[in-house]
Amino acid sequence: MSNGPSFQFPTCLVDLNLTLNYAGRKYFSGEMTSVDVVYEKIHFRHDPKWCGRFAEHLGQGHVMICVACVIEMMESDTVASVRKSVALSGISVVLKTNPVALKELLLQDQRVCLHFTASLLGMLHGDQDPSTLERAIQVLVQLLVELQSEQHVQFVLDEINTQLCNQSSVGAFLPSFTLLGRLLDTVPGLPQSLASSHGPLLERLCSALLYPDEGLKASVFYVWLKLWGAGGSGPSLPSPLRERLCVLLLQNLAHACSPQLTINCLGFLKELLQFSDVVSMLMNSSCDLVLSGHDQQAPPSTSLDRCPLPLILKKLLLSGDEALQVASAQCIAAILVHSPRQYCPPFIQADVPEFLFERLSSSSVVLLWSVYSCLLLLAQDTLFFSNCHSVYGIESLVRSLKEALRLSNQDVQRQGLLLLTDILERQPVSVRLFPSAPAFVSVTGVLLKGVSSPCLHVATQAARAVAALLRVDHQSTPVQYHKLEKLLEALSDRCAELPLAASSRHRGSLKQAEPSGHVSRAEGFLLQALVCFQATCRLAEHCSSEPGLKENVFTAPSKQNQEPLQSLCRCLLRCCDLVCIPTVTRHSEHSPSAPVLQHFFSILSYQFSLLPVLMPPFAVKLASSGFFRFALEHKAVFCVGNRNPSLNAACCGFLQRLSVSLLAPVDPADSIHPQDNEQIEALLKATQYCLLILLHLALQHGDRLLLDCVVFSCVVTLLCSVQEHGETPPPPCVLRSALYLLSVTQDQSPDLDWAPLQGIIKALSSSPSVSLLYTHHPALLHFIFHYPELAAHFGLRILELWLSHCPKASLQSDTLSKKMEQRPEPDPDIIALLGLLEKSPSVILTLLDMVCSREPPLAPRAAQVLESFLQGGRDCEARLCSLLRPSLLEVLQRMSLESIPAVGALPLVLRILCLMQPSSCTDHDMDGIHFKLLYHVSNMAGKIKASNTECLLPAFSYLYCCLRLAPPHSTDRAVSMLLCNAGLMEQLQATLELPSSSPCHLASLLCCSHLLLSSLVTLQHTHSAQVHRSIRLNLDSMVHALVFRKRTTDSLSLAGTLRLLQAVLDVDLDSPLLCVAVSPRAGQRPLGDMDSRLYPLGCHRAQGLITALFSLLLQKQEFLLCVSVNCLGSLLGFLQRRSPSTGTRLRPSQHVVCQPWSRFLLYSLLNSGDSCLLHPATLTLLTLLLQYGSRMLLWEPDLCQVLEAVERRGLKDLGENTGQALTQLLVQLHCSVIHPPPTEENRLRAKTLMESLSLLPPNDNAPTSIFHVGELTLCLSDFTVKTLRHTGSQP
């Protein structure tokens, strides 16, 4: 007979110990004081050999026992029961303390030993008190155990059978059954012997179960329990006996009233349920037969509906005894485990699941475990769900789990969560478990606790339950998205804490290592967490397509803009980005798993459909993190040979969605071609094209899957093979990938020969537009212009696309303070293009053509690149001159022929001309192209409207720089040409009439016109050039602006005004080019002697001008210091020339430098730190004061302070301008007379310093001749201190 499967419970649970009684009554078993076991009346008749003295326990004395006395006492009816009990107690003590001696005494004669045993057996059927019977049974058991004789055991069994046959009352069988139960407990091999050789005794045991005494039946069932459960003896019984026994068991269990009988029946039933055939007998027993109580053999019922056992066990579930409830649940589980499909329906039809759910209110871990186990087995049958037991019990189960998760027994928690998972997974879609929000919130709270459990086994099972809960039909109305978010966050937090093994191996190696047990459990939780994430993605995708699930009709209007589904999707993306990706990649480095990767790639794929707006940056992050390599490597490891098709499909789907997202345009103005998603997805299915696109995307984000030279060669071969075989040209997106790969891998590959180059050109030409092939990458520029053939076909359009992509340049400040600040970082796109210009100068002409022929924003962008290139100080000025100047001249000639010049191109061209001024060769005269450019620019400036400041400013800047930078022998022709240009003079006149407090762009134009006019005045005076039209200059307005409006006037305007005043003062306010005018004052008197000498400046204007200059010097603005000092020098020179010395009276120039405010100015400048003290303007001011005989300047402390500052800094660190100014000061000191005179030490210090200056080598790093402030180009010579003529101090 074969045994069925056994239902085992975990060893960690407390075993259910049923209190099995040997009889219906308990017997006294207390110890008595040992005495000699001798019957004095008859002892003298006995042979002394049957008498022995035995040592008591712990050497407390000796006890004498006479075997013959004991036999006669036990058989005598006259001996008191108490005396017999005392004798038995003494024998029991000896059997415990000295069993060997007593055994030897009895075995002297086998017959006597058997007689001794028979006498004890005879007591079991006498009228003995319970204590004596208990002593007799105890001695018999001890004796048989010590004798270890099969003969004596069989003798006892035969005697018991004989007594049962001869006994008239079944009620007297109780001591015999008790003894038999004790023997089965203690004597080895007795169950087997009894089952095989004592059939009649077993029949009588069955018959005893018909007796109404429940105590007797409890003892009999105990005997059957021990007989059945010992060494497989029960299955060897005859089949009829077993069937009869099953019926009797069911009858007694159904009608049992006493706890002892019920418990023993359940214990015996549990033993029987270990065998499949017995379970079949029990479950097929006729309900009528069992409930009738008749012992009749009947064929097994074929109808499971009439099975009595489920009803019996259900009745026990209703009892108030927890032990019986546990036993009943364990029996149910033991039945169902054999064949759930066969045995579940009777229990379900008997409504057993309902009562099992009711028992879940208990806090007993044993009962909870047993009930969970039963319900788990019952839930495997569809009838469990069709009868709505799951709906009835789900609330009880959730409450039970809530309490179980507070217990310390983790096995019960796992079993309960497993039951919840099974119910959630098997529940039919048509019947909802959580129709209302409170029920759903309750189950999510339980699962949150489960996921947060410190035990990974429990947390893993909770994660499985979460995945099952995420079915659409399990969601309440409305959907509790915020609770789902909490579940995701709990899973993410737990994943972040997982103790996944760290790998010290190289990332590319995929060899698996044997994980520890804890790590293995962590990986199991990770897999279940990923299943949950994937289920959430699936749920979110479904809800987004169902308006009824997407929108919550119960949400208040004030909160409807929160979009809970959108929030859930963002939570998914956040968890994926912050937890899933790092955890899975870390796990895959150590021990990659196909199931983990399958769910991982599926989760990543879902993100592209859930949040398409956020996918472009997410896709870029994935690609730049090496996910192309990650996916392809694991695909190669796990999917080769058609292995793991699910992982292969998930991996391919992820790569496809990632590629489509990277290829899709982020912005409509982006240069990336807006391909249709369906076309791209179709191309990704073609092997070669798919590999090409994957290589492109991976390399674009820094993941080099192959060597550059290999990629380059493969792409060239592919494009050429398509042409050679006459195949259909690749689609534009494939060609774009091919062109990108060729561009970024060209540096590590050999140059292309003519044939493959022509094949590439032909393939690229098949695209309807170059924009479809364009990728914004510097390598593309270099690749196209590396080959002249490619540049001829695609160069111009590629440059246009590049410049269209560049961001607009920020406006530059035109103030000096902004100029002096650190410049922002240049545009990387412009830097890349500048590198191309250095390698391929011919591109410069292409850009210039774009400046002249393209519309904004291309033309300004091209001009910006050329300006940046010209400002960069490249070592290619001669080549630039030969390239740009002829082209610029041609452009200007073409524009001069137009009635209305191109408004957009002209200012750009003029700005480029201004930036080329540093390239002017000052050692050649202005013949040829230089003079022609000057001529055309001056003519254009005369034709431009006065309101067109955008063109006038670069034109004036160019003319001004040409005059300032031209060699002296060439300036006469230049100034003559400009002076005869009446239109230019009119433009200058109109510009000079602009207010000094004009807006920023007008202030730059005013400054430039002042600088241009100052150069014209100076050069006209130098060369005595003919003037055809004079320019009116209002001296009052200029002085008034310096005196009263310097705080509101731009620094550039002030500098231009000062420079013009300096030039006018240098020619003594007398120039045929200028008509210097002054405003007449009301009630003006005739000019005095000094005013007439200084006319048109006059004393009043001279005094105001001096005050303004001193005020500007006190402001210590870097840009105005030198200009102010230069103007002050020119003013003092003008005053000196107009007012010669007349006796002892001070000249106006000397009067100016001797005023007290000169001392205040000196004090302020000399005590503002070494940077101000050693500024060229400060040193030049000291030189002027000495030159014009100021009495405010003293050797000590003023000049000594200068010498000390120079000595502290060192001559080598002074700078060229400071050195020249210091040299002028020292020379002037040598020529001047100062009161009080210097000490000899100070004189030697000055002399030594002057000699040291003369020995310094010339500065090879001469500063550039021009600089730029916004769009204004300035000559540095106009803003540095000028060299003074050295004369002695004025008397």
Please, what is the average pLDDT? 79
Through-space gap between termini? 144 Å
- Gross morphology: elongated
- Please give the share of residues in helix: 55-70%
Largest sheet: 2 strands, antiparallel
Number of strands: 6
SS strand fraction: under 5%
Low-pLDDT stretches: 1-33, 293-305, 503-515, 556-561, 667-674, 808-823, 919-925, 1286-1291
Q: Number of helix segments?
A: 63
If you compute it from the alpha carbons, what radius of gyration comes out, rounded to the nearest whole angstrom? 57 Å
Structural class of the helix and strand makeup? Answer: mainly alpha
Please state how the strands of the largest beta sheet are arranged side by side.
1-2
Q: Oligomer, anyone?
A: single chain
Task: Explain the overall architecture.
The structure is a single chain. The protein has 1291 residues and is mainly alpha-helical. Helices cover 64% and strands 2% of the residues. A two-stranded antiparallel sheet has the order 1-2. It has a two-stranded parallel ribbon with strand order 3-4. A hairpin with a 6-residue loop joins strand 1 and strand 2.
